[in-house]
Each structure stands twice: as C-alpha cells, then as structure tokens.
Amino acid sequence: xxxxxxxxxxxxxxxxxxxxxxxxxxxxxxxxxxxxxxxxxxxxxxxxxxxxxxxxxxxxxxxxxxxxxxxxxxxxxxxxxxxxxxxxxxxxxxxxxxxxxxxxxxxxxxxxxxxxxxxxxxxxxxxxxxxxxxxxxxxxxxxxxxxxxxxxxxxxxxxxxxxxxxxxxxxxxxxxxxxxxxxxxxxxxxxxxxxxxxxxxxxxxxxxxxxxxxxxxxxxxxxxxxxxxxxxxxxxxxxxxxxxxxxxxxxxxxxxxxxxxxxxxxxxxxxxxxxxxxxxx
Length: 281
Prior knowledge:
The chain has 281 residues and is of the alpha+beta class. Helices cover 23% and strands 21% of the residues.
C-alpha cells in the first residue's frame, strides 16, 4: 500500500462542545465502523468506540487536498486531543499509536497531540467511510485516516517527517506510554546515550518505527518486514551505503519498498547510526 503525499489542509469552522463524562467503550464492535481502541482497560485489551459516539464528539470542518484527488474536499474531523479528553485514560499514559491495515504505525506523544492538533477524519464531502472512496478517488483511505494542518497550527508541515503523522487505512488506536512501548530503547546499551544517539533515538521512534519493528519487546510497525538487526548491521558496516539507502533506496536495491528520505542531512543520519550502533539486545 503506497501512501499519498502529505495532506494539505485548510481550516474551516470549528464546533465547540464539552464531554461531561468519559465515553463508554463497548467490549465488542457494534458496527462495522466502530473504532477499536486498545489499552484503556489494560494492555492488550481491545474495546470499541461506537461510530455514533465518535460523531458526537466536538468536531471541526476542514478543506483537504493532496492525496484526495484533484479537488478540495470538505472533511468533518475530530481532533485527537478532544478524543483523548473523552476517554478515561489509564494513569501514566502519554502515547497514542495508530495502526494501519498494511502494518504501518503512526506514533503520537500526547505532547505532540496537544501542540500540533492532529485530527481523525470522519467524513469526506459529507460521506462517511461506508461510502468511501469518494467520487474521483482511486483508493479507499478508510476505515480511518488522520491528518495535520498548517491552518490549524502554522508551521506543522515543516516538521521533520510530518508525513508519518498522516496515516490512512487506520484500523485501530492504542493508548499506551513511552515506557511501555519504547522502554527498551532507554535501558541497557541505550540507557546512557550521548547527545547524537539520543537525537537518533527520537528519529527512530517518531519516523523509522512507523514501518520497522524494534528489537524484542519494543514497539514498531510491520510494513517493512525488515528486522531491527538489518539497519543496525548496515549502519555499522557501510555508512556510505546506509546514507544512500535511507535517502534513495531504489538507487541501490531496485524494487525496495522503503520510501525515500532525501531530506535527511548527514548529521541526522550520523545521529541515527549512533543510536543503532548502541547494539541493544
């Protein structure tokens, strides 16, 4: 599944409302487009947020373009911050994961959610996911998709790898914590990293982990199918190859599934290699 280019969005009219009490999650799906949410009632336990409750949350209307065909579309959205406010979050939770049907994973810290206001798209041109793809769109972005907008928070599109925060084909959300999902990257060989490796760790968690699984016990996407030890080994053995592969994978391996990251500087790739070079378990 190839992902479209980064969403370009225009802010419309925001609706305001307040959730008086945490939403009640269902133990099983009541409908095809209910949203599975894991972690609210303990790790590994999946509950379901009804489509009706999603539609009843505070919402906004935005105009979206880019990846949605040749014309601007009107979208009804729920900001992830408002969704979090509507849930009874477990103590210590500070991370939201969006999992996609192709194994892709988007990682959102609560800090990112509050500051940059990513949103869940509920309708496109007044059509819900039961009627997607909308006319003129060749692929189905459902059952859920998430976006960000410069018109909501100016400058968000300039953040490094912001495309990883706009997934489509989202099939579930997981409420978790950095400690629970990525704690292994802060222990053992990764416990006392220097500044370059610490920066590399952030690049991995916020970007690389979208497609690549981590080592045992560390969260990661499964889209790439590439074990964590492979980029570790490449970075250690041939830094020139590592840089070229990250920036333009098909120039070295025709047919490579990895998307190119030509915007990474030598410094950023050195930081990523320093993190990988810690050689965890």
